Every structure is written in C-alpha cells, then in structure tokens.
Amino acid sequence: MATITSANSEFTITNEAVFFAPVIIQGYMVDDAFGTEDVTPAEAKIGVDGRKSSGYTPYLTKMLVHIQADSPAIAIFEQWLGAMKAARDDLPADSASIWAPSLGKAYSFTNGTLTRAKVMPDAKKLFDGQTYMIEWETSDVSNV
User: What is the CATH number that goes with domain 10-143?
Assistant: First the structure.
C-alpha cells in the first residue's frame, strides 16, 4: 500500500558560489518541513463591457524551509547568508531538487535567491525552529 509520507523525501541545494558540492537539507521542523506558496501564472481582467482578457505572466516560486533549532542545515543557511553579507551581493543558488518517492515525483528549481532568514531561533521552553525563504526563477515537476 502506498503512503503519502514526506519522511522519505530528499532535498538538496547547489550553490557553487558558496558550497563546493550540493548540500543536503535535513532536520526539518515537526509537521512543517518545506513548501511553496501559491503562484500566479496568469492574470485576468474584465472590461466595463464585460469582455474578459487574460494572459500568462512569469512568476517566482517562493519556497519556505522550516528547520529545527538543532538541525545541521542551520549552518548551511548561515554560511549562505554570511557569504552574501561578505560579498555585499546576492549569491543565488544554482538549483535545488526534491525527490518525493511516496508521490513518485521529483521537483526541480533553478536560480534561487535567499530573500528571508530567521537569524536566531525564538527562545521558549524549547528553542523554536528557523525559517528561510528562497525565491526561485523556475520550478518544475516530473514523474519518476
């Protein structure tokens, strides 16, 4: 029987400007690992005469990555942000891939900019996780 678990997914990011090899993201927050926001691939409008017009519009794919406070992936995002600060420039990721065996799908992303970072976990009874946003130029899905 097939499942829809995300526990067996694999997420890698390649950023040759920062890392020497692809890095594996792991140590996700409980019940909230990673995901994308809705995209708007077309825009529609209607004129005062009631005639609809519409067209395709390019879009960025905003991805949120939620990492546990003790995850080794925190160091990956800290290194990326630190390299950007040192260079005083954007150092976009070349690509990312997510393999989701339970869905039989592979997701691929290219040209990703780190646009939001939680630089410190909130201190509560336990430290909260940290969230990062990457905005990708392209996103695609394939069946595997």
Answer: 2.30.110
